[in-house]
Amino acid sequence: MGDDAALIAAYQPHYIIKCDAENCDVTVFNDTPYDIAPDLALLLSTSGSTGSKKFVKISAAAIQHNTTAINAYLENTQKDRAITSLKLHYSYGLSVLNTILDVGGSIVLNNSGAFTAAFWEALNSYNVTCFSGVPHHFTTFEKLGLKWADYKGLRYVTQAGGKLSAALIKKQAKQCAESDIKFFVMYGQTEAAPRISYVPPTDVQDNADCIGRAINGGALHLLDDAGEVIADEGVAGELVYTGENIMSGYALSYADLGMLEDIKTLRTGDLALRNGAGYYKIVGRKSRFVKPLGVRINLDDIERHLHVQHNDVYVVGNDRTILIAHTHDADRQIDLGALAQKYNLPVAFFMCKALQSVPLLENGKTDYKELEKNISADKSKLARIIRFVKSFCIYVFCDFFAILCGMSNQWDSVEAVFKENFPRKEITLADSFQSLGGDSLRYVGTSLGLESLLGALPQNWHELSIAELENMRQAAHV
Amino acid sequence: MFNNNTVVDSLLMVKCLAIILVVANHAAISTGLHGGLNGLMLVSGIVMASFAFKDTTAHTLKAFQNFALRLAVPSFILALIWAVAYGQYNWSELFFFRNWLTKTRLVSFPIWYPQVMVQMLLAFAVLFWVGNITPKILANPKRVSMVAFVLALGACFLSYALWNSAYLHDKLPHLLAWNFIFGWLYWAFLIKDENNDKNRLILTVILCVTSYLVFIQTGAIFGAARFMWFTLFGLILIWVSALKMPFFMAHIFHLIGQATFYIFLWHYPAFGITLRLGSMFGVEHITAQPTVLLLSGVLYPVLLWVAVSALKRAYGRAKGEYQLAAS
């Protein structure tokens, strides 16, 4: 409700529609007209939203570009029929609707999830030709033994919305190929309306760990830390997309709806490399998110929030400490209590540090890596012990109820799950459950921990390295 | 095939049902409840085969050693604490061979299970080392597992023919090894090979026939109950890959599955606490009820496990912060 109020205050909507199972109540909230750009077609929340009022502004032209490009490689025609397997307010789900309608095809609207018998009965009885799923769908199908051969009408299956393990992609693609069904692996972001790249079905077996090549009308390249284009194969850098389907900026309030930015380049925030076949492979994430006590916090959000009152404030952190570095005079204190309350975290997680100057990169941007070194600046031994005891008590209390109630987000990484289940082992990213000597006393805890991070686990999870599992987790978060 | 509920793996389900059966039996809910630990051996056998049979025999031996230590060390510490607390030192119990001498025990948990498992793992370790068995079982999982199973059954029948071990409640490694090795058969037929109806049917026949022959035909102690429960657990594992249930119920399975060893070690003390609380508050007639004992025998150890897990996790996280702050 708090989020709704903030959203309403930011966007001052003309109408508020509240629905329950049977009725919808429409209220006129604001009758003052405000400026909305004529080509602004859609506002979508980003998947990494932390409950903020931030929306991606997407123009009708961007949607049309993307829809045409998707239809080019999926080869959709008016004979095709999709089914709603994803929410329509999710950019991937909406693109399924857009593409199928753009070619004059049809879509089966259904309220059953893809793990219900009713869904698959509808898929068969309405002669659906295409199914679209996210990694969770495919890992669960694998566990439940779904056979694509049972669904004769399908022409193709698409997978996007996060990284599926290469082994499972190969298996699913092979199974599809045996039934003459094309299996597309795709990648995108809401900011690209949403499709960016795809792997053609003929190349999936050899490039199962890749996100493929750019869609028609788009281009991909990689940038190193200095912002230079990486030309070599196998060198990781930030994945950058150029195309006509990119968003028109972000909106934080109704005041942002009147103007569309002309953005042609999107820095995805994903780290990737290019293989010999020219396909891109995601290897990590350039992230400004931390997760203290399992609460996902965007450090940029905090920074923006503080910038309202303080100009020279820079926020860095990790899952244990959020450091607010500033160059203020001593009398301009930052209210850590209010900040802790706003982000639902104990105040012990925040610390302030006054700096003489802010470290900068050569290009003039803030050097956050250098700033992170200040997190360890709390030198007093007593203060460290007090922080330790305080944090320990908070952790025990929170963890007890989190474990007892089965709350998700108990771990922040795959490595943390392994560290907890193999407390006396030296763990490296190359280790797997099997190589660490996992046994029946450890497998339940480890598998459940991993399930809470990744969703359904692949059959061979115990053979996969921590690095591979971590890649899957990060892909799922993207 | 599909619904919207949480999926619980049948291995986890059987593990939970087996430990609950152990506690129910000890709470005297009814007669005919023996067989829980046989079920746990089966689960351990499947998991051991899945994770320990890899690459070389050295890897398998390491896995056997790790598992034996994970069972033996806490059992030894508890037995030692018990011995110190009561001033009764029984070396055969402390050093894991009392099951060969008597069916009685001093400690407050069924220590025969870790004793049998440790002895069994020792014997397997020797056999794997001498015969360099891991590459062979990986090359031909069905054949080698079947040979191991037949040998284990042979040892069992021979023992029953030559020696009436009822006075030890049959809690001897060579009488129970086939329970564990049946897990290897499960691994060979349904995990390494295709999980199809033919393999399931073969395993079902092997399970039912051997279970009947060993538990019923030999006159094994508590044979009827063990036959019923062991066969049921085996059938669930063979025919049900996972079960869907509401999150709340699935989470209970998750908690019990993770706290299984705690329940095994602490359910008798939990009974004691419940009975003492009953006498303190004058409600013995309630707390002495087998159902109440069963609930407490599961609930207290689960809460203990949750508390220990929270402490361990919090310590690790707080320690990380401490190290970071000091760096």
Description:
The complex is a heterodimer of chains A (478) and B (327). By secondary structure, chain A is of the alpha+beta class. Chain A folds into four domains: 1-33, no CATH class; 37-217 and 243-263, ANL, N-terminal domain (Rossmann fold), CATH 3.40.50.12780; 292-377, 2-Layer Sandwich (GMP Synthetase, Chain A, domain 3), CATH 3.30.300.30; 409-477, Non-ribosomal Peptide Synthetase Peptidyl Carrier Protein, Chain A (Orthogonal Bundle), CATH 1.10.1200. Chain A has 13 helices and 21 strands. Chain A has helices at residues 2-11, 60-74, 91-102, 117-125, 135-144, 166-178, 299-307, 336-342, 368-372, 381-405, 414-421, 440-454, 466-477, and strands at 15-19, 24-28, 40-45, 55-59, 81-83, 106-108, 130-133, 156-159, 182-188, 195-199, 213-214, 219-223, 237-242, 250-251, 265-274, 280-285, 289-290, 297-298, 313-317, 322-326, 350-354. Chain B is globular. With 327 residues, chain B is mainly alpha-helical. In chain B, helix 1 (10-26) packs antiparallel against helix 2 (36-52). In chain B, strands 1-2 form a two-stranded antiparallel sheet. Chains A and B meet through helix 4, helix 5, helix 10 and helix 12 of A and helix 2, helix 3, helix 11 and helix 14 of B.
Biggest sheet details of chain A: 5 strands, mixed
- Strand arrangement within the widest β-sheet of chain A reads 7-8-9-10-11
Which pair of protein chains has the largest interface, and what are the residue counts? A-B, 51 and 54 residues
What is the strand tally of chain B? Answer: 2
Gyration radius of chain A, rounded: 24 Å
Alpha plus pi helix count of chain A: 13
